[in-house]
TrEMBL record:
Gene: tub2
Domain of life where this protein originates: Eukaryota
Source organism (scientific name): Colletotrichum gloeosporioides
Protein keywords: GTP-binding, Microtubule, Nucleotide-binding
Family listed: Belongs to the tubulin family.
The keyword 4Fe-4S is assigned to this record: no
Protein name: Beta-tubulin
A biological-process GO annotation: microtubule-based process
GO cellular component: microtubule
GO molecular function terms listed in the Swiss-Prot or TrEMBL record: GTP binding
Amino acid sequence: LPTLKGPTPPCNQIGAAFWQNIFGEHGLDSNGVYKGTSELQLERMSVYFNEASGNKYVPRAVLVDLEPGTM
């Protein structure tokens, strides 16, 4: 999960907090590698993630802010 640098708008902060929580709930480290201990964590992984090579998962969403002042 990429880390947001510098001052971030509230919506981006909410999005980052959401993904950090989802990564933790599904037993993923910050690189998307499964480190969990429960089959239950893997059961609905495809709701939020696509599986890539090497037991790595990537988020199925891209957060975009069209406000010019935030870029």
